[in-house]
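Lab notebook, bench 4. The sequencing result for the construct came back, and we need a structural model before the next group meeting so we can plan mutations. Quick request posted to the team channel:

Model the 3D structure of this chain.
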Amino acid sequence: MMKVKFLGHAAFYVEMDGKRLLFDPWIEGNPQSCISVEQLSHVDLVLVSHDHDDHIGQAFDICRRTGATLVAVHEIAVEAAKRGLRAIGVNVGGPARVEELEVVITPALHSSGRGIPVGFIVRSREGTVYHAGDTGLFYDIKLYAELYPVDIAMVPIGGHYTMDPLQAAVFTSLLKPRVVIPMHYNTFPAIRANPQVFAKEVASRSRGTRVVILKPCEEFEL
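Done. Here's the predicted structure in token form:
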């Protein structure tokens, strides 16, 4: 059974195959945050989609505190290693074996100060999750979905910097996950969006996909 806990904005805590994964851990300064860095004491992997502050957040600090391994594009991993942290540098391409999990790095249409922005498809015996990071709409996600069918997807819907609800619903129709969780919305005025609009648009395009809207610190199991 996989467990996904929403920590606000684009931060998620995921348990799968006995491993504890933390995605885009912006905790301190996040108005949606429901947890402190100190409470995140059991983490195996910290996955960072890009180095904007609202995604890399406290990743280095959490890795230092917990001994977790950072997984990020090469340039971010190099910076982590310089700070004495365990880090695995990756890039868009074939799967990387990480802690008995298979991590597929996907493109993301966005920007990043160091390296390129990416998304993560993480595969385990229990199932597959996809964290899109920050991205605009792109058709190639359909190819990834054909190669690596996704059980739970986390997709930005806030617009302005990423997809809005309509674009995210079209993206979801290409991805065809069993479950999709909207993220990266209503944290600040520029990304104000209604997740119910997203849910309605998904329902009209993707009958096989369930939309799960989580509040900070709510969990979903599959």
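Residues 165-175 form the longest helix (11 residues).
Will bring this to the meeting.
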